[in-house]
Design goal:
The structure holds two protein chains of two kinds. By secondary structure, chain A is mostly helical. Chain A is built from 16 helices and six strands. Chain A has helices spanning about 1-15, 15-40, 40-65, 75-90, 100-120, 125-145, 185-210, 215-225, 225-230, 235-260, 270-285, 290-305, 310-315, 325-340, 350-355, 360-375; strands at about 90, 95, 170, 170-175, 180, 185. A two-stranded antiparallel ribbon of chain A has the order 1-2. Chain A has a two-stranded antiparallel sheet with strand order 3-4. A two-stranded antiparallel ribbon of chain A has the order 5-6. In chain A, helix 3 (about 40-65) runs antiparallel to helix 10 (about 235-260), helix 3 runs antiparallel to helix 12 (about 290-305) and helix 5 packs antiparallel against helix 10 (about 235-260). Chain A is globular. Chain B contains ten helices and ten strands. Chain B has helices at about 50-55, 80-85, 100-110, 115-120, 125-145, 160-175, 190-205, 215-225, 240-245, 250-260, and strands spanning about 10-20, 20-35, 35-40, 65-70, 70, 85-90, 180, 210-215, 225-230, 235-240. In chain B, the strands form two sheets. Chain B has a six-stranded mixed sheet with strand order 6-7-8-3-9-10, sandwiched between helices. A four-stranded antiparallel sheet of chain B has the order 2-1-4-5, with helices on one face. In chain B, strand 9 (about 225-230) and strand 10 (about 235-240) form a beta hairpin. Chains A and B meet through helix 7, helix 8, helix 9, helix 10 and helix 15 of A and helix 2, helix 3, helix 4, helix 5 and helix 6 of B. The structure holds adenosine-5'-triphosphate and magnesium ion.
Chain lengths: ~375, ~260
């Protein structure tokens, strides 16, 4: 057992093995839409594209919740801002059709501004209070979107905005099927590859930020805000920065969402969405990038997979015993509860957190804990 | 303006702090000279930690002023205080528990470094150099306090004495002119206390002024150049350790504390 483990550790350090693994992963990601389409159908390629959008969102929220430790329950507001910004400036709504390369960075900047605007008054609050206020802000944005159709019609109210321009990169429209290399690339494939590229960029940004002066300051604030301030960290600014960064990731994802769907309405930005994104971050392992990616993929794929509960019953019992929609939520809820009971720090926590929970250090840790608590 | 060499480094005058009906500090004045080790003693609840919290910007005083290195610091935010050169440790140890020892000290360099989001993402030459300097200074400081071997361990997993040293290393990383230590020897055994004493003398030797709250009488008497005694939020004595030890008011305060 330990021999196997040692061997594994050795392999992990061998650069050739690491490169081979990366190349295999890259090949897998490139081939994924074809394989998925062939095995499960086109609808699942679409689900993959959504999973990528959610990874960007979750990584954005991970900066706020996972690194800086600020519980934000209104994060979907930034997704909404990005989506509506794109929708308003690339649709017949106002007859404006800005190009994608302009909309994407602008959307990120606008969402970032909203992050600062929402953050500035709320970041004095801590913990539960911050959670409640951000929850309120998230809803305010959605309610604005619902009601900004009178006296002047801006958002088209609850109907939402339709006929949004599909994403075009130069003259290359993602919404058309393109032949290349003897293969044909339908619209969903094109979106998948664009989202994949941007998701990789977001992952890259996250990795760089995590291991930097700013990233350490975020974690320090999460661990002990008073000590962080006493060590010279301007906690207000650094927290605002976390909010702004998280928001801009959300804004990018929102813009892509609008272009992909061709349609946005306030319904897509309810509190449930915020909670879902938070679940993605927490399920995989807060503050750990691979964990967040894993959690997101699971939470996007699992509900879709559970749709098959209906046909499965049909096959097993000859009829549908329980409504698959209800059953789906039940199974989903159970799965979440089980994970939190069995793996409280997430499915794939960072090594740091894992060490914290490892058994052989438990005794030492308890000793330590008494010292900590007694002096608090 | 240049400061005269013998001018006080820290001058607090008439500091008062109330919590509701409780007067935790009443018109306390202390003067700390450059390069000395100044002790702050007094029975439990005397207001020592409260004074630290006022000096480091965690509490806003209800009255009084304090000037550090010629700069008026009253009401300054904690991070500005650190920037101006006062670093501290906490009576109840406040490390970044889930960061490694090295990372804890690296956080201490935050205030003396500049890299922002853009630098973090681009990781340009300047940022890389800065990061390397942060890491090497942090390692130096771990070595300095004697826990270099523990660099990669999580702060909360360190033995208690090492946590105290780590807090000192983290505070030193901010490059302070004044290091304020709140009961650094609490919970240490005799050997550890002796090592701590050597460490603090070395810190002073390297040009950092020390302000020390401590209950360990032997340590205070042996280490401090001057001490001030607080009791019920008032300063009841100040002077060289030997004099203060003989002061009837001090004896009364301590005995009274024990009897009551
Ligand atoms: N944040 C606060 N709110 C209310 N009361 C406080 C607060 N901080 C301190 N006090 C009170 O102020 C008084 C002085 O407390 P302080 O912690 O400064 O004492 P101390 O001299 O550090 O004592 P010790 O030796 O036990 O650490 C105590 O009566 C304490 O209960
Ligand atoms: Mg105290």
């Amino acid at each position: 057992m330990s021999l196997f483990f040692d061997r594994w550790q050795q392999l992990k350090r061998d650069p050739r093995v690491v490169w081979a693994a990366y190349i295999a992963l890259a090949a897998l990601l490139v081939a994924l839409p074809f394989v998925t389409d062939w095995a499960f159908g086109r609808a699942w390629v679409r689900i993959l594209a959504f999973a990528l959008l959610y990874i960007m969102l979750a990584l954005g929220l991970n900066i706020v919740v996972g690194y800086a430790g600020l519980l934000d329950l209104g994060y979907v507001a930034f997704f909404a801002v990005g989506a509506y910004f794109y929708a308003l400036l690339a649709s017949p709504q106002f007859g404006i059709h800005l190009p994608f390369w302009l909309l994407l960075p602008l959307g990120a900047a606008i969402a970032c501004t909203f992050g600062v605007l929402l953050g500035a008054p709320t970041l004095r609050l801590r913990g539960d209070y911050l959670a409640i206020v951000t929850l309120g802000f998230g809803e305010i944005i959605r309610i604005f979107l619902v009601n900004l159709n009178a006296p002047i019609n801006i958002t088209n109210g609850p109907q939402g905005i339709n006929l949004i321009d599909p994403i075009k990169l130069g003259g290359f429209s993602l919404a058309q099927t393109h032949p290349a290399l003897g293969l044909s690339f339908p619209a969903v494939y094109n979106y998948y590859y664009l989202f994949l590229a941007l998701t990789l960029a977001v992952i890259f940004f996250s990795i760089r930020l995590e291991d930097s002066r700013i990233g350490r300051a975020w974690v320090a604030i999460r661990e002990d805000e008073v000590a962080a301030a006493a060590m010279g960290i301007n906690t207000r600014n650094v927290k605002l920065l976390a909010f702004a960064m998280g928001a801009s990731f959300g804004g990018v994802s929102g813009g892509l969402f609008a272009g992909f769907q061709g349609f946005v309405s306030p319904e897509s930005f309810t509190i449930i969405e915020s909670i879902m994104i938070l679940c993605m971050v927490v399920l995989g392992g807060m503050g750990h990038i691979p964990g967040v990616v894993l959690g997101t993929v699971l939470l996007v794929v699992l509900p879709e997979a559970l749709r098959y509960l209906g046909p499965l019953q049909q096959a097993l019992f000859g009829r549908v015993l329980a409504d698959p929609a209800d059953l789906r939520l039940l199974v989903f809820g159970l799965a979440l509860i089980l994970v939190m009971l069995l793996r409280p720090s997430g499915l794939w926590p960072s090594t740091v957190r894992r060490r914290e929970l490892s058994a052989d250090e438990d005794v030492a840790r308890q000793e330590q804990a008494t010292v900590y608590d007694a002096s608090r | 303006m240049m400061q005269a060499a013998d001018a006080p480094l820290l001058e607090a005058t008439g500091i008062s702090k109330r919590f509701g009906g409780l007067t935790a500090l009443s018109e306390v004045s202390v003067t700390v000279k450059r390069g000395e080790i100044f002790g702050l003693i007094g029975p439990n609840g005397a207001g020592k930690t409260t004074l630290f919290n006022v000096l480091t910007g965690l509490y806003r005083p209800d009255g009084g002023e304090f000037v550090f290195g010629g700069v008026r610091m009253t009401g300054m935010k904690p991070h500005r205080v650190a920037e101006c050169g006062i670093a501290r440790t906490f009576q109840n140890i406040r490390l970044f528990a889930n960061m490694t020892a090295l990372e804890n000290v690296m956080v201490g360099r935050h205030v003396r470094t500049r890299a922002g989001v853009i630098g973090a993402i681009l990781r340009d030459g300047a940022t890389r150099n800065e990061e390397a300097a942060i890491a090497s200074r942090a390692r130096e400081l771990l070595e300095y306090v004697g826990i270099a071997g523990r660099a990669a361990e999580l702060a909360h997993a360190l033995p208690y004495g090492d946590q105290r040293r780590l807090e000192i290393a983290r505070a030193l990383a901010t490059g302070p002119g004044l290091l304020a230590l709140d009961e650094p020897a609490a919970g240490m055994n005799a050997t550890e206390t002796a090592e701590l004493r050597r460490l603090l003398e070395r810190v002073r030797g390297d040009g950092v002024t020390l302000l020390l709250i401590e209950h360990d009488v032997k340590l205070v008497m042996g280490l401090c150049d001057r001490v001030a005694v607080l009791d019920y939020g008032k300063k009841i004595a100040e002077g060289a350790p030997v004099e203060v030890k003989r002061d009837p008011a001090v004896i009364e305060a301590y005995l009274g504390g024990t009897v009551a």
